[in-house]
Amino acid sequence: MEFFKIFSVLSFCVIALSTITTLVVHAAKFDITNNCPDTLWAAAVPGGGKRLNKGETWTITAAPGTKEARIWARTKCQFDANGRGKCETGDCNGLLECQGFGSPPNTLAEYALKQFNDMDFIDMSNIDGFNVPMEFSSTSGSCNRVIKCTGDLVGQCPNELKVPGGCQGPCWVFKTEEHCCNSGNCGPTNFSKFFKDRCPDVYSYPKDDATSVFTCPTGTDYKVVFCP
């Protein structure tokens, strides 16, 4: 009986170790780098948040099956010793370590890992507006995908969408079906075209899937660069 007890314990340990190893091996890595001249406060859900001076990188990981995930930059933040404060753009309920999505305007990198057919789905979005130029790209040899939004969207922003530190998404300004697409039946508008003309691979309105969502094989690693 003692032999079978030991065997059972060893078998459990092997299975547990194998499961942990699988999760570690297949977790996607995201290197988040600030190339902007000013300090930014990177944010990620899941992941939290971190202050990044120019040239600094923050690395996070996300497990297979993670979805509705976002990475973005926060600008002009001030936090106290307890990690509480406020940012001009991208603020997440006044917390350094974000637990929820940020306040617009914020340029977004979005992803869902290990979805249909063992593929990762990745995109960038200006639906919530624009605050910082960004690149979201794969770094593994199995996928060669680069998404960028680097135009002067803040400087060229239509007057109706201008806010301190960024260019607001039209839904947040007008709050109408035309811009918010709550019914799922909508098309591009003049304001969404402003974003699309400058960042053609990036979501400009909610039904912009055909030209804005991309895939990589599960197991791919990625990087997000602010001011690429």
Write the layout of secondary structure elements.
Elements: H1 2-26, E1 28-34, E2 40-45, E3 48-52, E4 57-62, E5 69-74, E6 78-79, E7 85-86, E8 108-112, E9 119-125, E10 134-138, E11 146-149, E12 162-163, E13 166-167, H2 170-174, H3 177-180, H4 190-198, E14 213-217, E15 222-226
Parallel strand pairs: 1-15
Antiparallel strand pairs: 1-4, 2-3, 2-5, 5-8, 6-7, 8-9, 9-14, 10-11, 10-15, 12-13
Please describe what this structure looks like.
The chain has 228 residues and is an alpha+beta fold. The chain is 19% helix and 30% strand. The chain is built from four helices and 15 strands. The strands form four sheets. The chain has a six-stranded antiparallel sheet with strand order 3-2-5-8-9-14, with no helix packed on it. The chain has a five-stranded mixed sheet with strand order 4-1-15-10-11, with no helix packed on it. A two-stranded antiparallel sheet has the order 6-7. A hairpin with a 2-residue loop joins strand 2 and strand 3. 37% of the residues are buried. The N terminus is likely disordered.
Mean pLDDT equals 91
**What's the β-strand tally?**
15
Helix/strand order = HEEEEEEEEEEEEEHHHEE
The DSSP helix count reads: 4
Intertermini distance? 63 Å
Strand order of the largest sheet: 3-2-5-8-9-14
Q: What fraction of residues sit in β-strands?
A: 25-35%
What is the global morphology?
A: globular
Class from helix and strand fractions: alpha+beta
Low-confidence stretches: 3-7, 9-25
Largest sheet: 6 strands, antiparallel
Q: Helical residue percent?
A: 10-25%
Radius of gyration: 20 Å
InterPro entries: Osmotin/thaumatin-like_sf (IPR037176), Thaumatin (IPR001938), Thaumatin_CS (IPR017949)
Keywords: Signal
Protein name: Thaumatin-like protein
Signal peptide: 1-27
